[in-house]
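task queued by scheduler; priority normal; single chain, no ligands, no partner chains; default sampling; output format set to structure tokens
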Amino acid sequence: MSTSYDSFLQAVANMEDALASTLNAASSAPNLSPGQLERLLRLIIKKEIVLEFLLDEFPRNTD
């Protein structure tokens, strides 16, 4: 049986996969400027920081 915490972790994993795919595609795009790549990296880093806070605060069933 899946808990809400498991669902949350699955959503986080899906987001990580999507962002990794986005970064991979963007970094190989010939028309992407260094500034655009930097902006994308900054957004990914910010997302990581927010997720760390969410993981710390998300209620977990330890039963």
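post-processing summary
- The helical segments are 4-27, 34-57.
- Residues 4-57 form one domain.
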